[in-house]
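User: I've been trying to design a sequence by hand for this structure and keep getting stuck. Would you show me what you'd pick, starting by listing the structure so we're on the same page?

Assistant: Good idea, let's start from the same input. This is the structure you sent:
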């Protein structure tokens, strides 16, 4: 299941990040790829210990912590410090599946990658190509979002980034270890939570909302690992 977070980053925050990244020290992105994916990857990234990347990553983490849609969808236990990549001059990343485990460069924690997230930092009209293509339950889905928006999807999905033939595509990306490992169960819990929130908008639903909220939390209590 995919979930889009529109306007994750406010305009002033986005402008600040883009100004910082304009002076970034980009390096060959293949340095962070596994042996199987290295030949399919043609992009640039910031070093994981680059102070600029760490500062920019914290800005994104702060935005996520305030976004109820992220919490509801991912049910996060651990979040990898965001990383940053740039595609241009035909750069692409062929179909691959992300590594199951990552080491957070900022904390040294080992993280199981349950949910992948891409935060788009350039608007679609700034570059040609660069679509995130994800093989989902119902076939291929193509994602190209406005700057400041993010997409969340299961980390075990086969996916690619199409070649960028004009301009440049800059994005943040990271992984989340969820309290609920099973994607299908997370999707059910997310749907239930969203339904409760819609019902709660009407005062006459108070009794039903109370009961359903209890059911939701009891399900999380049963299935969450912390």
């Amino acid at each position: 299941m995919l979930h889009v977070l529109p306007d994750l980053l406010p305009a002033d925050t986005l402008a600040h990040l883009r100004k910082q990244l304009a002076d970034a020290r980009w390096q060959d992105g293949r340095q962070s790829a596994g042996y199987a994916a290295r030949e399919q990857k043609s992009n640039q990234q910031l070093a994981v210990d680059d102070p600029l990347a760490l500062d920019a990553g914290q800005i994104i983490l702060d935005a996520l912590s305030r976004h109820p849609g992220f919490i509801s969808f991912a049910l996060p236990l651990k979040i990898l410090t965001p990383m940053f990549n740039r595609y241009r001059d035909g750069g692409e990343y062929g179909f691959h599946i992300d590594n199951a485990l990552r080491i957070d460069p900022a904390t040294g924690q080992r993280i199981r990658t349950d949910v992948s997230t891409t935060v788009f930092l350039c608007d679609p009209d700034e570059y040609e190509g660069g679509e995130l293509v994800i093989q989902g339950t119902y076939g291929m889905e193509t994602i190209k979002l406005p700057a400041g928006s993010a997409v969340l999807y299961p980390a075990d999905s086969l996916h690619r980034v199409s070649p960028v033939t004009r301009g440049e595509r800059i994005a943040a990306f990271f992984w989340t270890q969820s309290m609920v490992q099973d994607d299908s169960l997370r999707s059910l819990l997310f749907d239930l939570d969203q339904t409760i929130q819609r019902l709660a908008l009407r005062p006459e639903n108070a009794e039903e909302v109370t009961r359903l909220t209890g059911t939701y939390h009891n399900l999380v209590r049963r299935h969450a690992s912390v």
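That's my pick for every position. To get oriented when you compare it with your attempt: Helices lie at 11-22, 51-65, 68-74, 183-199, 206-223. The chain has a mean pLDDT of 93.
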